[in-house]
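Researcher: Here's a chain I'd like modeled. Treat it as a single chain, no partners, no ligands.
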Amino acid sequence: MNLDPEDIARVCAIGVGATATMDLWLLLLHRLGVPTLNFAMIGRWAGHWRRGVFAHEAIAKAAPVKGELALGWLFHYATGVAFAALLVAIEGSEWARGPSLLPALSVGVATVAVPWLVMQPAMGAGIASAKTPSPARNRARSLANHAVFGLGLYLTALLVAWISR
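Model: Modeled as a single isolated chain. Structure tokens:
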């Protein structure tokens, strides 16, 4: 697939917008007293990669990394852009010009595989939060968060398509 600079800008805007949509959802949950992601722990996890450490017994007990909160947010948004690129790679750049809900929601929900199968095990929480005190609740939250991300992919793509006309 060949993407021109306009397509690349669309993908970046869609990824950032979808991630921001998820962040607004997380902010709402936080204000309602629901525990949410700690982006410093994501930054700590990613920060240890340069030392060759990819998995931890418990990421909260790992040595802090300078700038881990900023690194966590950067990683979060870069991942959102990568997932938007995946959606456009699957559906084609025409999808971004005339988005539909089902592909965006499907990709959004499918992206929950990354935290369940990669991030949570590597941070010491086990596959799909199996080692946490409330695995089922944590899985449901992750799934909901990623469904909101998928909705964000669609809504942001609609906005970008409308602005681009």
